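explain this chain.
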Amino acid sequence: MASKKKIFDSVQMVREIRDAYYRIKSDPNYDRREFEKIKKKWAHLLEQQEKIKAKKTIPTKRTESK
């Protein structure tokens, strides 16, 4: 069985955002724009994953014969 290619990994996303959030709170030199880049990256990956799912689940018209 072939494995699906997973674009969006929620566990990795949570780790990256949590680490960045911690650095914002603890490191005064941490650039807040870096946190915004991380959020944008994951939002983009989630959007791509949703597009792939939407393409796979498009219902096809089936005509019933009477």
